[in-house]
Amino acid sequence: MAQDTTVPKLNFEYWLDKAIEWGQATTLESQKDVCLHLPQLQEFLHQLYETIKHLGPTVAIQQFPLIGQLLGRLCWNPFVIGYDESQKTLMWCLCCLYSSEPQNAVELKANSWIRSLLCHLLSSSKWESNEAETSTFISALGYTSADYYCHLVKNMVVSLVTELRENQCNGLNIQESISASRVNAISIFCVPLITLPDLTPLLETLLLYHGGSSKEILSSEFLEAVNEAFLKKKISLPESTVFSLWLRHLPSLEKATLHLLDQLFSIHLNSLEEVARVIKDSLLPQAASHPAIFRIVNEIFKNALVETDGTPEVMTIIQVFIRLFLQAYQNENKQYKFPLKAYFPYHHQPLVRSLVRHPFELPTTYWSQHVKRISDILKAIVEDTNVSSLTDLFEIWFLVACFREWLDIATEQLLKAAVEPDPVLWLLAFYYCPRNENQQRTQTMVGAQAVYNHLMTLFSCRDLSLEDLEAAVHRVTGVEQCCNQQLTTHLLTNFLLFSSGGHKIAQECIYHITEVTDTSKEVYSLLIRTAYRFNHSGEENQRTVKLMNELLQKFTLKV
């Protein structure tokens, strides 16, 4: 038997020949030869793992086509898997070959083969000498092999969970402390097995585990795999565990946020209740109770709004997310609640406090007063000479846009003559035209004032026709450009919803406006926001609610 143990690095042919020669080490001669080569074999396996861990299954197999045959033979050699860390390294190598998203039958079969080898390695122990003894032992316990492996995995999970939790409690005891490398190795081992229900307690413990190191000790592959499985609803985790995952791994939080946006864009949403359900199910509003998560998610939404040129769909998503976040924030234990400034650190706090007040927290008789307060605070900030950069102006505008329900209420109060018009018109002019370069905002307000004055002369009329609104419609269609089209559409749509005679011509007028101005998405967004507010405010105006529902049904087919 050859005694030379000087082996070239990653010499697959040499080690494959040895593995074939050794078999399962059933003879004395083969056992001696295995023992002579174990240190070099372990070094080889470690080098192999370091080489393939970043390649991915397909590239690894292309680069090392004999790797499956080699690992498969070594996994069945009791002397190899019983030596030092060889068993663990074999598991690591197998995990590198596992396809998280198999694309064909070959990859599915390879995954099945890897799982069977992992189960075999997990069920192997140093006292086992051959398969016959193991089978006899399992039968004596009254188990089938499948039951035995299932119980073995559960016991292994319980053992690791206990070890990690005890170490967390005794973190200051150096002798009992688990090394960061061991915790990292456990997380890597979990990657191909993440969707196994029996593994969930270990996943939870790992994600809540914090060692003494300032660096992340869990492998990025593990964190990404858990997040992917959670987003695809392949696993279920407690909220606290998911929050811990997103706090310790920023890419997972970013992916979860983008996944939510993709999910909302891929379906047609007929109501804010439906939007709220999808967003709430994502757990992002609840997780945003931690300021770090809130600021990151908010920044992603802000970038999405910029990239889509302020599309109404994104704006609606942001508005609903903010309200759900505030609900979760208010439900937080006061002892552990962060101040609002932690979430909006760079904004004028009196404005923040005014905007975050939910309209339903106030009697409707106080709405006009609150709207005026928001407008006065905002105007003082915007017209301050310190707000000179476009970035600062955009940040202020985005804050107001997050709480758009106050603009809807302001418009309704304006048309019902329940509020002083100038502050509301300025607020609307700022929202639709935040920049005042070349007096743009000032001109927008002048145009809005003209539209408002015209609409108010018709507000009490019970018999209206489209021709009666022609002057306002002309402003929308661009005959008079001094007023922003979207602002005028906002005013006119609210007029049709809340005026005495607007109901009769609402459908005809809104269709005419949206066809000539391409504002159907803005109108639809306004309708579902108003319907949501009415459905949750307890207001008794059944005619308006019925009209909005009819318009929404027709717009669902058109938008």
Strand content: under 5%
Order of helices and strands: HHHHHHHHHHHHHHHHHHHHHHHHHHHHH
Largest sheet: none
Alpha-carbon Rg, integer = 33 Å
Low-confidence stretches: 1-8, 125-130, 171-176
Relative helix content: 55-70%
- Structural class determined from secondary elements: mainly alpha
- Oligomer state of the chains in this structure: single chain
Termini separation? 79 Å
Number of extended strands: 0
Estimate the mean pLDDT confidence: 81
Number of helices: 29
Query: What form results from the Cα inertia axes?
Result: elongated
Task: Name the descriptors.
single chain, 559 residues, mainly alpha, 0% strand, elongated
Describe the 3D structure.
It contains 29 helices and no strands. The chain is mainly α and 559 residues long. Among the domains are: 12-122, no CATH class; 144-167 and 178-248; 446-558, no CATH class. Helix 17 (291-307) runs antiparallel to helix 18 (312-331), helix 25 (470-477) packs antiparallel against helix 26 (485-498) and helix 28 packs antiparallel against helix 29. The protein is elongated. The model is unreliable at 1-8, 125-130 and 171-176 (pLDDT under 50). One of its GO terms (cellular component) is Fanconi anaemia nuclear complex.
